[in-house]
Design brief:
3 domains, 466 residues, Beta-Lactamase, 56% helix, 10 helices, alpha+beta, Heat Shock Protein 90
């Protein structure tokens, strides 16, 4: 942002300076040239007036000589010609004589006003002596163009200095303006990023800056405070529910165990059914708490080796799969993919997906886990050849209790979806060719090459669902 503001102001100022300074310098240069020419013609006319007394009135050439000497002292070269273009008098220098002066003298004697030529850094001016149509002679004055060139150079030099000074002032002003605007925005961006990473006590610095940015920082702080209060309240509710529900359920299960120990056959069967319902209720409570934790998760991304975690979870679930007569495999030879995920999240996702597949696939079936790169994502698939899911069930499978075909609590895929999306990925369900269900996960790759994977305690239980 700082660069954009600086370059925008610099380009705008440059255009304005070019549009203002260059035409002004051109106009002043033209005025200097006109003034210089007028001064030269005025000096020529003074000599012509003195020469008229000598050529027309046949008076002594004293006045003419005096003006020629004055012109010589001023650094000019002058020459007086009679009506036949014959040289009458001149200054010691000969710049107003010769071939250069012949054409202007002829033009003046013919009654014309020739364009003053420039030769070897000198400007020539020619004026008639006496009447313009019937002149008694002509006066030619040559003046050096160096003073005019020096004035023009000074004009353009000052113009360039003004332009450079303007650009320098613009750069300083734009840099200060850009920093004044961008610094509080950068601090606000950093605070928002840290808040998004889970630092709920993060607050923006409402310091110097534009009033709009200060108001934005204050609004952000209000939002962060309310978010922190809501999340802490949510966590407190979860902790209270966990304690208030699990404790009486455990006590009730213990009482039923005691009653079932000495009960008759019919009563014992009823008590066993009640125990199963209590166990199901316990799993449901654990699942609800797990979903709540997943929904309020704000993970800090770490480098997670997808290939290593996939192989590790397949190895961990292989004994369970073998016990049920299933083939659980991880496709070897895949790329070494490193994803950016929260610590332990990929393990929880795979545990839930493999557990769902193990429960859904009949004996003799197979479950395959594979992975590959898909652009800027790591694509992980868990495929099985079980009964699959209907289109209606797949449409609501990621919702809480959305799958009417679920054998378990109906929360496992909801946790998988939440953990995938909170890490910037996606989860979707597809049909396996030949029958079955395929869960496709697209997870963001770690921006830099990393070989370690984040670990951490598994905070969510495995919830089984088909």
């Amino acid at each position: 942002m700082s660069r954009r503001v600086t370059w925008t102001l610099l380009v705008l100022t440059s255009v304005l300076l070019v549009l203002a300074v260059v035409p002004l310098a051109v106009m002043m240069t033209a005025r200097e040239r006109v003034a210089y020419r007028d001064s030269q013609r005025a000096a020529t006319r003074v000599i012509a007036a003195a020469a008229e007394e000598h050529l027309s009135d046949h008076k002594p050439a004293v006045a003419m000589r005096r003006e020629l000497n004055a012109a010589a002292r001023a650094g000019d070269c002058a020459a007086v010609y009679d009506a036949s273009a014959r040289l009458v008098a001149s200054t010691p220098c000969t710049a107003a004589q010769g071939e250069e002066a012949r054409e202007p003298v002829a033009g003046v004697l013919a009654g014309h006003e020739p364009e003053p030529p420039e030769n070897e850094g000198r400007l020539l001016a020619a004026e008639p002596v006496g009447e313009v149509r019937r002149p008694a002679g002509a006066v030619v004055l040559a003046r050096s163009a160096q003073p005019l060139d020096a004035r023009i150079a000074a004009i353009w030099g000052w113009s360039a200095a003004i332009g450079v000074a303007g650009l320098a002032a613009t750069v300083l002003l734009s840099v200060r303006l850009a920093h004044w605007v961008s610094r509080p925005l950068s601090r606000l961006d950093a605070s928002a990023r840290r808040l998004g990473e889970g630092a709920l006590d993060e607050r923006a610095d409402v310091g110097p800056g534009p009033p709009e940015v200060r108001r934005l920082s204050a609004t952000f702080n209000t939002m962060a405070a309310r978010t922190e209060a809501l999340v802490h309240g949510h966590r407190a509710v979860i902790a209270d529910v966990s304690h208030q529900l699990r404790t009486p359920l455990a006590a009730l299960r213990l009482r039923l165990d005691v009653l079932a120990a000495g009960a008759e056959a019919g009563t014992a069967a009823e008590l066993a059914g009640a125990q199963e319902e209590i166990a199901r209720l316990s799993r449901l409570v654990d699942g609800m708490l797990a979903v709540a934790r997943a929904e309020q998760a704000t993970p800090r991304p770490t480098a997670v080796r997808v290939d290593e975690v996939a192989a590790e979870r397949v190895a961990a679930w292989s004994p369970v799969a073998e016990e049920r007569g299933l083939r659980l495999t991880c496709v070897p030879g895949g790329p070494e993919l490193t994803a950016a995920l929260g610590a332990g999240h990929l393990e929880q996702i795979l545990d839930n997906l493999i557990a769902n597949a193990v429960d859904a696939v009949p004996e003799g079936g197979s479950i395959t886990v594979d992975h590959r790169a898909a652009g800027a994502l790591a694509r992980l698939r868990v495929r099985d050849d079980g009964p699959g899911m209907s289109a209606q069930a797949k449409a609501v499978a990621f919702r809480r209790f959305g799958n009417p075909e679920a054998r378990g609590t109906g929360l496992g895929l909801a946790i998988v979806h939440r953990l995938a999306t909170v890490n910037g990925g996606t989860a979707r369900l597809e049909d396996t060719p030949g029958g079955g269900l395929t869960v496709v996960l697209d997870l963001p790759l770690w921006p830099a090459a990393g070989h370690g994977r984040g670990g951490g305690p598994r905070s969510l239980p495995v919830l089984r669902e088909t």
